[in-house]
Amino acid sequence: MATVNLADARRIIEAAEARAAEIGQPMNIAVVDMGGNLVAHVRMDGAWMGSVDISVNKAWTSRAFDIPTKDLGANSQPGQQFYGIHASNHGRVMIFAGGIPLRRGGEVVGAVGVSGGTGEQDQAVAEAAAGAL
C-alpha cells in the first residue's frame, strides 16, 4: 500500500516553505503518513512555538477523517453534523484551516498540516504543499 515517505515529505515541506516565504509568514509544517504517523516537521525561523503541536494535529486530523480541516471546521459549528468533534480523540482534532489529505492516484496516502498564520494563510500554504505531491 502506498504511503508518504521521507522524500515525499521533504518535497511537500519545501513547497510549503516557499509559499510561506512568498506571503511573508513563517510556518510550522507537518507531514504524516497514511497511518497518521509523523514523517517530518519543520518550524521555520520565527514561527510560533505554540503552532508546532497544532500543525502536527492538523495533519493527523486531516488523515484521521480524510477531509481538509477547513471543511471539518465548517461542519462542526453549532447545529452542524460534526458539532463537538473537536473534543474527541483527547482533544487532538483540529477544526480550522490548514490540514489537507495527500492523495496519490485518488488514494489518501498521508496529510499535511500547517499552522502559524491566519486561517487563510495556513490554508494557502497547505494547498501549495499538497500540490507538491
From TrEMBL:
Coiled-coil region(s) = none
| SUPFAM superfamilies linked | GlcG-like (SSF143744)
What InterPro entries has UniProt attached to this entry?
GlcG_carb_metab_protein (IPR052517), PduO/GlcC-like (IPR005624), PduO/GlcC-like_sf (IPR038084)
Ranges annotated as spanning the membrane: none
Q: Which Pfam families match?
A: HbpS-like (PF03928)
Give the highest taxon in the source lineage. Bacteria
Q: What is this protein called?
A: PduO protein
Species source reads Phytohabitans suffuscus
Q: What is the lineage of its organism?
A: Bacteria, Bacillati, Actinomycetota, Actinomycetes, Micromonosporales
